[in-house]
Design brief:
Helix content is 43%, strand content 19%. By secondary structure, it is α+β, with helices and mostly antiparallel strands. It has one domain (2-82): Glutaredoxin (3-Layer(aba) Sandwich), CATH 3.40.30.10. The longest helix has 11 residues, at 26-36. The termini are far apart.
Length: 91
Amino acid sequence: MKAFQNDIARFEELNVQVLGVSSDSLKSHQAFSDQLGLSFPLIADDGNISKLYGSGRVTTLIDQQGIVRYVHKGMPDNEKLLQEVGNLQSY
């Protein structure tokens, strides 16, 4: 999550909304966000999001029409991820 925060301005320049999702509680999310100084939302998933997009460390790029365009399991390299976002600009 800290890596996403470090590059948040670059994501925002590409009109990307970064979201963190886990089954942790809202209270836990708030403490985690405060600890890391996150400026993007963390969502407490009741299981519905993970059913749709997978659980664990998964990064999913979804375009503005709601179509999944890229999935990466594990922690992505932000440079690769930003490149993939740039590729979506052509859709």
